[in-house]
Amino acid sequence: MAKDNISLRGAIAIGIGGMVGGGIFAVLGLAISLARGATPVAFLVAGFIALVTAYSYSKLSIAFPDSGGTVRFINEGFGRNIFSGGLNNLLWISYIIMLALYASAFGSYAPNLYSITGDPKTDSHIYITAVILIGTLINYFSAALVSRIESYAVIVKLVILIGFIGVGIYGLTSSEQFSQLNPQNWEGTFQIITGGMVIFVAYEGFELIANAVSGLKDPEKNIPRAYFISVGFVVFLYIVIAIIAVGSLSFDAIQEAKDYVLSEVAKPSLGQTGFTIMTIAALISTFSAINATLYGGTRVNYTVAEDDELPKEFTAQLWNHPVGLAIISVATLLLANLAQLESISTSGSAGFLLLFAVVNYSAYKNRERIKARSWFPLFGTFLCSTAFVVLIVQQTSSNLTGVIIIGSVIIACFLMEYVYKTVRKN
Predict the structure, then answer these.
(1) φ and ψ at 36, to 5 degrees?
(2) How far is Cα 289 from Cα 236, in angstroms, rounded to an integer?
(3) How many angstroms separate the CA atoms of 186 and 180, rounded?
(4) Mean pLDDT lowest among 170-179, 200-209, 374-383, 409-418
(5) 259 CA to centre of own chain
(6) Closest Cα to residue 94, out of 412, 381, 330, 409?
(7) Closest to 240 measured CA to CA, from 267, 262, 272
(8) Could you report how far apart the first and last alpha carbons of the chain are, in Å?
(9) pLDDT at 309 over 80
(10) CA-CA distance, 110 to 172, in Å (whole number)?
(11) C-beta neighbour count of 179 within 10 angstroms
(12) Cα atoms in the Cβ-side hemisphere of radius 13 Å centred on 141
């Protein structure tokens, strides 16, 4: 039996910290550009899918407590073969996409605090590169330091965001933009759903709970609590933030500051001081998310290689750390500096929607072993699969580059697994 080493509060903190990382700072402006006045509804739609999927994760986590988390759940549903191997490869590639998203957000906010060259685009690339390199060095230096940074960062960003909500709600009472939330300013249903799916990456972090609950006290009671409390809280938090953002700034102002919209939203109530505080919060959040995701992505890469779904060379050590850390860092540097924010966000959302569809179906296949209601995981499979298709269809006409990246990543993951398995047999 696993030793009790994590409390319910700690598991909830992991879930909230995983979701309220850099996601909301990176994708809020993008969500508003897609759904406009219906942005809170878009966040609700994405949050509902996360809540349904959390049911499957909670049941699987109770039945198969393992630090491998999603990797273990996929293997339990489909065995160890090319299909599951390709999906597990997609998981660690999705971590790289998330890292690129956080780094891009960091690069968007940082020049507003301090300009290095005077050119925002050049400054953005400098900051993107610097934050990835610093995060990598910290991960090489000390895993304990990564954990300490994340613990403090979760507290700081939640305090700032809750304070922002308090001031923002007060400011709404006198805002001239509050009418933007009226249904006549909503986009069509399809566009609203697409907006929710593009920013689904803001919720994916709850799956990190699965990697930590093997030592959770009283698991049958506390594992579901950890998932539903953390996801429910973040859904509420995001909806309120979206209401404040749409009700505080004109759509034109939001579009102009799309990549750093939360800082701009703080201006009407708190002026330049509010702008600066929210920029600092964004930098802390995205930096801590980069640290934690580098660590988590390296562990996934190592676990997949140990399960013989990637070459054993990926378990090799480089400076006393798995070589995957260096590979992930280099890949993140390239993606974050070469791809646009919307393409990165779309790719990340698509990857996790596909993975969550498979995890939901794995829960359905194992419904008797995990004591799950059969219709719930099946409903989650349907929701995630439908959301994935809706996202691809809409983005094909508006963001073909993002769709090409998605398709290329998925094909590469399965091709890599096929080649590896074929070569290994021979």
Answers:
(1) 55, -125
(2) 21
(3) 8
(4) 170-179
(5) 17
(6) 409
(7) 262
(8) 39
(9) no
(10) 27
(11) 11
(12) 12
Using one digit for the tens of pLDDT, what is the confidence trace for 84-127?
889 988 988 888 888 888 899 899 899 989 999 989 899 999 99
How many CB atoms lie under 10 A from the CB of residue 396? 12
The DSSP annotation for 367-391 comes to HHHHT--THHHHHHHHHHHHHHHHH
By residue count, the chain amounts to: 426
* Selection from 44, 86, 105 nearest residue 358 by Cα: 86
Of 78, 93, 90, 82, the closest CA to residue 417 belongs to 82
Question: In sequence order, what are the residues at sequence separation of 6 or more whose Cβ sits closer than 8 angstroms to the Cβ of residue 129?
Answer: 333, 337
40 closest CA partner among 158, 218, 183: 183
Cβ atoms 167, 248 nearer than 8 A? no
pLDDT band, residue 370 (cuts 50/70/90): very high
Closest CA to 103 of 281, 261, 291: 291
| Token reading at 219 | 């698991």
Q: What's the chain's average pLDDT?
A: 85
Q: Copy the structure tokens of residue 211.
A: 């990697």
Q: Which two tokens stand for residue 287?
A: 């930096």
What domains are defined for the chain? 8-425 (1.20.1740.10)
Q: What amino acid occupies position 60?
A: L
* pTM of the model as a whole: 0.86
Tokens describing residue 400: 């073909």
Residue 156 has a CB neighbour count (10 Å cut-off) of: 14
Strand 321-322, strand 317-318: pairing: antiparallel
As a whole number of angstroms, the distance between CA 244 and CA 362 comes to 38
d(CA 309, CA 314): 10
| d(C-alpha 359, C-alpha 341), whole Å | 27
Q: Alpha-carbon dihedral of residues 287, 7, 59, 359, nearest 10 degrees?
A: 20
